[in-house]
Amino acid sequence: MALAAEEGFDPEDLEGLEGQGPLPVLAVVGRPNVGKSTLVNRIIGRREAVVEDKPGVTRDRVTYEATWNGRRFKLVDTGGWEIDVLGLDAAVAAQAEVGIDNSDAVLFVVDANVGATDTDEALIKIIRRAGKPVVLCANKVDGPSAEADAAMLWSLGLGEPHAVSALHGRGSGDLLDAVMAALPDAPPQTFGVVEGGPRRVALIGRPNVGKSSLLNKVAGENRVVVNELAGTTRDPVDELIQLGGKTWKFIDTAGIRRRVHLTSGADFYASLRTSSALDKAEVAVILVDSSEPLAEQDTRIISMAVESGRAVVIAYNKWDQMDEERRYYLEREIEQDLVQVQWAPRVNVSALTGRHMEKLVPAIETALAGWETRISTARLNAFLGELVASHPHPVRGGKQPRILFGTQAGIRPPRFVLFASGFLEAGYRRYVERRLREEFGFVGTPISISVRVRE
Ligand code: GDP
Ligand code: GDP
Prior knowledge:
This protein is an alpha/beta fold. Helix content is 34%, strand content 19%.
């Protein structure tokens, strides 16, 4: 199911259109069975989200796009996670926490017939701590006789309880008006990355590694004539290049072509260009001169790319100059100095002869796929359960911290949040990352793992 919400767009493609930009995100939070899915279906006017009359049905957070009074927003159903793994409260709290972190406002759903439970109170604490605007929905108010139940929820201290019947639609318009008032117009953009259009590639590397030569080689006859592609930008610093049947946007190629004749300040200029190109790109192709020993500047540029959170491909250029001896030393250098990017796809190319140019696109595509990989919460927790059982954290001071639960909080790059019963040592966190990569791939992408400790 391709949802419009996932497709994204490039604001530059939509010049002249009003009101475009990243959409504000509403997290729908509540304990299982209060009617979140029913409400989400009601709001998006669809029937396809799973609704089952049984608490704790496994499903993941799902994002939908919705419109109310002409305003578009994203709706994240924080869903019901596999709660047998942990106690119910911990799982519900964990899910709410991640959902809320990634949102601009919270729609908190309570079953008015049941009233507020301890789990609801626990959720309220989390919502308060996050400090995001919140709208309170008193659900299952199917008729006037249940209005009094809704009014009881004033005591939660979250403002007006909006009485709603998600099942029948009663009160949902007023609820959406309140939601609209709570949502900001344009949320802050993550990473400064604009979505949509041709994939954006940054060609980076220290001076003289062959960026300009490589660009000329791949561009060759493949350069896309301005205007040929409807709706793409005419930014003269970027170039649209047709490769492997697709159009790619090579970022800041003007900076590559502009030969810098400065005797001093060239390094500074190069690093400025690198960081600005990374800002705008989705994937970095890092060029290294394989005919020379790896320089400190090479590893610095690689670190910049990894820290920027972009997908990464490493191209070892000038391979036409390779011989047995150099190859031996290069492999040692890579083992020693590039352990941090062992996961990056590698291509051995020559911009001079054109060697292996055809391998560049598959490598870029692999890296982008890794960058956008999403692991379902159920799969992730099955994996974590096995990991914890087969390789528990070492006992420290009589205690043994355990990973209780995990979720993938985002992609581009994949970000994970682990909930643990105690502090996880760096070595153990690295082990988790290594095992995650073995299990799920994540080729060509940095991944981030953050740990939250639950007492
Ligand atoms: P979730 O676990 O919070 O997503 O809850 P669901 O949307 O799966 O709903 C749980 C149950 O409550 C289902 O049987 C729904 O049909 C029922 N339900 C949801 N909203 C309402 C409502 O407004 N009134 C009534 N009577 N039942 C509702
Ligand atoms: P940039 O500063 O990274 O843009 O590097 P250039 O593209 O200007 O290349 C620097 C020098 O390396 C030039 O003399 C190129 O001809 C040479 N060069 C680039 N690619 C290759 C290659 O694959 N093999 C060889 N032998 N020389 C190359």
